[in-house]
Amino acid sequence: MSRFKYFKVIALVTFFAFMFPLLMFSKNVDANLPVKVFVDGVELETDVPPTIINDRTMVPLRAISEGLGMKVDWLEEDRYVIIETKKEETPKEILTSEEIFEQTIFGESFATSKQITKVALKEGVVRIYPNISDNELDYYVTRAQINVTADKNELTTEEVKLLNKIITKNSSEFKNLTSAKKDEYLSSIATTYYKLAQLYLDVGEDYGIRGDIAFFQAAHETGWWRFGGDAIVDQNNYCGLGTTGSVKTEEDIDIRGADPNRVWYKPDTKHGAFFDKPVTGVEAQMQHLFAYASTKSLPSDKELVSPRFRLVNRGSAPNWIDLGGKWAFPGYSRTSYSSLEEAMSANDTYGHTILKHYMKIPDLTKAVKELTLEQRIEQLEKENQELKLENERLRGLLYK
C-alpha cells in the first residue's frame, strides 16, 4: 500500500550518462556525426553532448529528465540518482491551527512519510545532535526513503530497539564518534522513523483512521521512542495500552478476547501489554482509537489485538481533542489548570498536545475537493440561506 505521491526512479550510476540501446539505429551510422536530442519536437540543448559508444547512445541524464519536466537529485555519497515525475497537483489549502484542533480521528491522512520523518528525526536527535541543519534533515530523510523503498522487509523490534539505543545516548558520546559512525547512526535513525511513519499511514488506512496523527500520539507517549516510562521498547507498545495503574498480577492478565499469540501481559514484571511485533502494536493502537471514535464493529477481516478495546466507552471521542480525560487521565496538567474544561479552553489537553506535535510539520495542507457546477450552486444556495438567517438575527438585535 504505497503512499508515495511521486513515482520514484532510483539508479546507481558511475557517471553522468543514461544509456539507450541502439535498437533503432543502423550499424553503418557514422559515430562522428553529432547526436541531437528532441523533446516534443524541440531540440534539447545540453551541457554535455550526447555521443555514441559501442553502438549505444549516451545522453546526459539530468538534461533529458528535466527536459521531460522531472526533478533530478544526486546523492554523491551513495551514488544515487533520484528522478521524480510529479503528478498533476490537486488544489491545496493550508490548514490553520483552529482547523487542526478540529481534526477527527477518522479520516484520510494529510501528511506524507517524508514530512513525518523530518519532524521525528529533528525531535529524535535533539539530545545527541541538537544543531542538525535543515539540509541535513532533508538529506537523511531522502536516504531513508531510498532505503525503505529498496528494503521491502517489515519493521522489526530489533530495528526499533536500535533506534532507542542510539537516541538515548548523551551528546558528548555522540560528539566523540567518527564522522562515518555519526553518518551511519543518523541514517539508521531516519530509516527507522520512516518505516514507522509508513507503518502508521498504512495501518491507519486499513482502519480509516488518521495514521499521520496517530504517529504523533505514539511519539508523545514514548518520547519519540526513547521510552523511559512504565513501558519498555521490547513491548512494541507505542501508545501506553495497559500501562496505567499497578503491575499486572496473575489474577489480572485478561486480554479480553484479543489474540493471545499476538498480545499478552507479563504478570508481576512490567506495566502494559506486550505485542509480538511492531505492526501488531500499531494495529492495537488503531483499534483502540477506533473504539473511542466509533460504535461500529472492527473491519471483518481484522483480529482483535487491543486488550482494552472492550473497556472503552464506545464513540465517546470522535475528535483527537476528545481523548483528554479518556485515553489519558486526567488529560491535562493539574499544576497549570483546575479542571479539564479550563485546559480545553486553553487548547492544552492530551489531545491538543498530540496535535501540536503534528503541527510541527510546516504548511500542512488538505486537498480542496473539486466541485461540480451543481454542487457549487448548492453550496452557494446554502451559504445564501445562512446569510439570510444571520441578517435576520442581527436585525432583531438592532430593533430590540
Automatic annotation (TrEMBL):
One Pfam family per UniProt: Glucosaminidase
Entry coiled-coil feature ranges: 370-400
Keywords from the UniProt entry: Coiled coil
Domain Copper amine oxidase-like N-terminal: 39-89
Domain Mannosyl-glycoprotein endo-beta-N-acetylglucosamidase-like per the UniProt entry, residue ranges: 198-290
Origin: domain of life: Bacteria
Molecular function (Gene Ontology), one example: amidase activity
Keyword Coiled coil: yes
Name of this protein: Copper amine oxidase-like N-terminal domain-containing protein
Taxonomic classification: Bacteria, Bacillati, Bacillota, Clostridia, Eubacteriales
